[in-house]
């Protein structure tokens, strides 16, 4: 299974306009074991803090993604994704709450995300390259929101977590 | 040739006039070395890079961060022909420094994050898009002379 993920990851990387280190090729398990106890605690704390403002964080990240990577808008033709729209807030909220839920117990990520795995694999079928784009925009949102508090250490931890999250989401794709 | 809208031009000029290059350059480079530790492979002569604290306080990292921002400021002054402006820099990175060009994107991402945390809410989605377009042109120009 790791082999298929590696091949898939290589193909996705070539397609990606935004090329960044593709940790999904390393696979969920390796990323999780590379998160120290300290990092897992930090990740959990940060996402707990963001839960009350999930709508704002989520919609902000989505808007950034749509502005920088217009191709991502193609997945939202059924929604109103203009700034301030109700759809944007509710969808952004869903995403952030799912990320926060996973952060509560990262070692159980595959269990927590099982229903979302099925949804993404069989219904949404979002090309996994896009997970990297949203992850990057999520990090930018966090930087704007947390300022100095978004230290390099926090950045590294959350980047690793979001890569693991994306890897788990795409596990059932094939 | 790259087409810049008035908004993009103004945004890039404004960002670079507002940021403290003495702070942003070192912050972006040290963040890159921390978040993507394999990039340390190019800085063997920089001494202590063992942990985040060491990297952040390393004077060679800080000095080099300023050099990188200086290079970007050249591109800002020559937005209509970054490719030519960067010809020698591209040759340098390819032939002498032997930097894997994929790493340019990693540093670009860290620079985006540092500018974002400095500008806060002023770093809107449209400002981000303009900044990332600028960095994409810079990266493409740096890649150009690789062979």
Automatic annotation (TrEMBL), chain A:
Name of the featured protein: Globin domain-containing protein
Highest taxon of the lineage: Eukaryota
Organism for this UniProt entry: Ataeniobius toweri
Entry keywords, A to Z: Heme, Iron, Metal-binding, Oxygen transport, Transport
Similarity field: Belongs to the globin family.
Residue span, Globin domain: 34-174
Entries under Gene3D superfamilies matching the protein: Globins
TrEMBL record, chain B:
Extent of the signal sequence: none
Keywords for this protein: Heme, Iron, Metal-binding, Oxygen transport, Transport
Domain named Globin: residues: 3-147
Top-level taxon: Eukaryota
Stated family: Belongs to the globin family.
Protein name: Globin domain-containing protein
Secreted keyword on record: no
